[in-house]
Amino acid sequence: xxxxxxxxxRVPINSKERHIPWTKLxxxxxxxxxxxxxxxxxxxxxxxxxxxxxxxxxxxxxxxHLYNNIKIAYPQKERTTIFSDDYNGIDVxxxxxxxxxxxxxxxxxxxFVYIKATEGARQVDNKYHDYVDDARKEGLKIGSYHxxxxxxxxxxxxxxxxxxxxxxxxxxxxxxDVEEAGNSSISRDELQRKLNEFMxxxxxxxxxxxxxxxxxxxxxxxxxxxxxxxxxxxxRYGKNPPTLNxxxxxxxxxxxxKDEIHGVKGYVDLDRFCNGTTLS
Length: 280
What we know:
- The chain is α/β, with parallel strands linked by helices.
- The chain has helices spanning 22-69, 101-105, 128-137, 154-164, 188-206, 216-222; strands spanning 3-6, 9-12, 89-92, 112-119, 123-124, 142-147, 175-178, 211-215, 232-235, 252-259, 268-273.
């Protein structure tokens, strides 16, 4: 009779220690399989209502996502514009309320419209997307702007702006709005550092530096001459155009914030090209 070695001692192959009760083992496995199957079916019955609800929620979310993200390419109307010594464009935000863009587009003097998109690190103008869609549908050339808050990180503000701007719906370079409100509490150096970072991020994403908007007095105090090299959009109300201390010059002059045009209820900002600036 052969033998095997176990723990350094010889054990007969037919030892009782090696005997396996195959019949009992088979019956036990069969019983275990049936019990598992019973519990699995019971589990499926319990989660079925939950699965149906989950499926419905998933389908609803998918439809909602598509509804909010698919852009309908409306055909743009053809417009004929004229160059005027009066005004050449407007800038708007939610404060203009409901705008009749068809009436706005009927004014041949209006060559461009800048629309507020975002502010700071989180805020979004709730009229922005409607304004963009409706204005472009009427053939108006549009650009988007961000209201800069100096105490907020530049990267967070840029992410907020980028999140809501569709490159394919932009006719003009982006604009950053830097005013005394929201920036008076930080130092000149800190404001310039953060603004420069924001402008570099815009350049990396969109291929061009943004147009820089600011109030005349605030710009001269906080940003000039360091930012004079950029395209400038300066607000100075009255008959006297802005003048900069150094070699810089402004490209657009916002000469009033209290004028009226067809299609906009109440006052609106009017903007004029300067120093040979055109859309091209």
